[in-house]
Each structure stands twice: as structure tokens, then as C-alpha cells.
Specification:
There is one protein chain. It is built from 15 helices and twelve strands. 43% of the residues are buried. The strands form four sheets. It has a five-stranded mixed β-sheet with strand order 1-2-8-5-3. The chain is globular and about 60 Å long. The chain has a single domain, classed as Cytochrome P450 (Cytochrome p450), CATH 1.10.630. The protein is of the alpha+beta class. α2 packs across α8, α3 crosses α10 and α9 crosses α11. β1 and β2 form a beta hairpin. The two termini are 26 Å apart.
Length: 446
Amino acid sequence: MRFVPPHPPRGAPVAVWRGFLGERSRTAVYGWSEAAFELKHIKRRVFGYDVHIPLDPDAVQHVLLDNAANYVKPDIVKTLLRPTIGGGLLSSDGALWRDQRRIVAASFAPAAVDALVPAFGRAAAAMAAGWSEAVIDMAAEATAATMRVIADTLFAGDPRLVSRAAMDHITAALEGAGEARLQALMGLPVIPWSRKGRAARRGQNFLRSTLAEVVAERRTAGGPDDFLGRLILALEDRFDPKEAAELAIDNAATFYLAGHETTANAVTWTLFLLSEQPDLQAEAAAEARAALAAGTDDTDLPARLPLLRRILEESLRLYPPVPRFDRQAVGADRLGEAEVAPGAIVSIWPWLLHRHKALWDDPDAFDPDRFRAGGRARHRFQFLPFGGGPRLCVGARFATAEALAVLARWLADWRFEPVPGRVVKPSGMITLRPAGGLPLRLFRRG
């Protein structure tokens, strides 16, 4: 049976300034017209910037791969990210980015990730141990589980990184992004003026100060041979002590924040989609039970979950955890028929590409068989849940294995049903999460 999950309404094109008011200022994917899912290229003028939105995968490939050296992280994005993640991997360019990428890559190699899969399952099981047959906010549970995974696997289980305060501060930091974005676009100092903005600033300060303590303690006392320990040693070997210390904090913040938030959202949206389709959920649960029963140490668990993987990929298509990311042109270029001037912003929108009518059959409908082996061929740059090109997310394999392991553990033992009458809507400016969380009714499987 055809299932079309909710998405924001689509009407006539709206003026650019409307993007900074009302729901559009809180939800990046709100307010797009129907034409945005049909055109090959959109160009706008936003506060003095030319903004290009390529919707042809060939043009996206040109930006992210073929001429990637010409497209760097925008100055505006660096301004917004600097208070939280400084000059870490996500916000740097050029030689600094390449050095940091080489340093962290080994921690996310296939063998290294596979060895962590049992830890993913243990974190999921620990969360579920406290559940009962009741209505539970699964967005909060997914966030807590992925925070636990990151803390355990990358930061030696530091308890400061899994507290309720940490979760609340991170949520506040993400929700305050809209206000800071408007100030940055207008060339104004990024100063929190609203209650949400002040909460966001407190969240940023909490994250930085907490991770600064963690890094300082590790540099002084040493510790296990984990991600953070290897990161600190490699940075100290490559940079002077002061810069190495600062970059250690920057990258700790990057991987702690980005490492759990996006995966939590992927798990949350997948649970929502399965809660609305009980027969498919039962199939996925049966597969999960069989896969868990067949393994000994679960390092190869993701390979035993082909149906759940297809469901996860379709969830990532319909609700990409990061619905947009931006680049800025260093020099003049051309995207199809559009001239790109130096300094122009090129905005890549997985939200639009993943639902584009020229790229997908029945694009708003949920159909995990799109990702079945041997299915319709697709361009490598039309599906971008983890970005693409040289800056493809270094943690893509980690996030996918983690999401599959968490979902398998939970589906094997629990059934998830929607709360009657509750409408689920996407929200968020940086990442995409259900507005107000995702309360679901939980029942133990017999």
C-alpha cells in the first residue's frame, strides 16, 4: 500500500525575506514551492549574496567533486560554527582540513567501525532496559542512545557527555541557529538578543567548556587508546602546543555534536516511518531478531539486515538529517547555464534533490525498494545523506552501522505505535528533527 509521510505544504514561490519570518525561520524545509522540486537550478539574491541552488546531479557533482577546490566553506557558515566547533574538520578548508582529515580517518576505517558495532548494541540495550509499555518520546531516547555511543566509543565513556544537561544544551544550541543566521547574513555581530538566542549561547559555552575540561584532563593524565587519545597525540605531533590544544577541543566538539545528533535524527525518523506501517515494522523486527540470533559478537550485524538497511536509506532520503549544506565560490565558474561569480554561495539541498520529480519515481512516497540491489540506477550525486566528494562525511559508515544496530536491538524487543491524533512535522534549521519530539506508544513483543 502506498504511504506518503508528511512534508511541509507547497504553494507559490515566496519572497526571499519570508525565509526569516514565521515557520520558515524555524524550519529550513518549510515554504518551498512545487516548482523547486522540478527545476534544474534556482538562483536567488539574499542580503547582497548571489545564492545558487543546483538541482541537477551533474552540477552538484561539479561543485562537490570535479571542481571541489573552487568551493569552500562559506564565511557566513564559519562565523556561525566558530563559537561551537572552532576550526575543526567540519569548518576548515585547505591544508588545515587535509591534515585533520588524515588524522581522524583511521578511527573511521571499516575495520575500526566494525569492531565498535557490539558497543552500539550495548548502548541501545541499556536505554531500552528502562522502558515500559507506555508513551515514550523516542526522539529523546534516540538522542540519549547516540550520545552514549559517542561517549563510550570516542571519549572513554565520560559521564559529563551523557547528562541531561548536555542534551538540553545541545538542543538549545541547534534551535538558536536561525537567529544567528540572520545576523550573519546581514553582516551584523552575532549577539543573542532573544530567549532562544541566549539559550543557544549558553549551550555553546557549555559544550566548549565541558570538552575543554575533558581534553585538558586527557592531555595531562593520559588515558585509553581511543579516538580522543589518538586525536590529541596526532595533533600534538603536527601542530604547536597551543594550536594542537585548541584543535583538539574543536574536533572533540565536532565529533561529539555532529556524531550523535544526525544519527539520532535518522533513528527517530526511521522509527516514525515504521510506526505508521505495522506490517513492514513486523518484517523488520523479524529480520532483526534473526540477525541478532545468528551472530556471536555482532561485528557483522549490519550485513545481516538488508531490509532494515533499505528502510534506513529511504528514511534518509525522505528526511535527510542535514537538509542543506553550503559552499562559496573562490573563483568564477559555470553550473549548467548559470554563471557563478567569485564569492557566490552554492547551496546544496538534499531535501530538494531527494524529492526531485526528475530524479525519483513518486518522490514523496515511502518505498524502501528503491534501494534494492539491481533497482533503478541513480546518479551518485542525487542521494546525499552524508554529502559527497572529498568532503564526504568521514563518519558515514560509523553512523550507518550505529543506526542499524540501535534499530535492530529496539525492534527485536519492542513494537512502536503512533499516538492517536498527533501530527508529526519536520523542524530545524541545521538538522531535521520532529517538532516537539516523537512520542510513540511502546509494547513488548511476545
